[in-house]
Amino acid sequence: MAVGIDIRGGGHFEEVYGVLNDLKEHGLDAKTVFLESSDEVLVKRFKETRRKHPLVEGGRIVDGIIKEREMLEGLKERADYIMDTTNLLTRELKQALLDIVVEGKDL
Fold first, then answer.
1. How far apart are CA 88 and CA 73, in angstroms?
2. pLDDT tens digits, 29-85
3. What is the DSSP letter of 107?
4. For residues 94 and 73, what is the distance between their CA atoms, to the nearest angstrom?
């Protein structure tokens, strides 16, 4: 099973730490994959989709990205895998995730 979360989870986002601890306490082999990208590429992606960053109202997208990085730092530190998606095509990201989750390969 795979579960995706991001900062838009609001108040529920903080619960992820407890859930990860519970999974380990119950002997489940849960792996955390943290996806990141460069600020420049993230700004470009937001502009291409014409979406506002969820942490910034009327401000600069990059300000939201910086705030989000700060909020996610603890989760990144706990991650089993950190994947930089800056230069990945969608199909390459899909294959890398399959390699980790299905094949059990290390990056």
1. 22
2. 888 889 999 999 999 988 888 888 888 887 888 998 998 898 888 889 988 889 999
3. -
4. 24
What is the dihedral sign for C-alpha 36, 40, 44, 50?
positive
- 3-state SS assignment for residue 81: strand
Task: Burial-class residue 2 by CB neighbours within 10 Å (0-12, 13-18, 19+).
Answer: exposed
Residue type, 40: E
Q: Locate tokens 């979360």: which residue? A: 5
Strand-pair partners of 77: none
**Which pTM was predicted?**
0.80
Q: Which amino acid is at 7?
A: I
Tokens representing residue 77 in the block: 């530190």
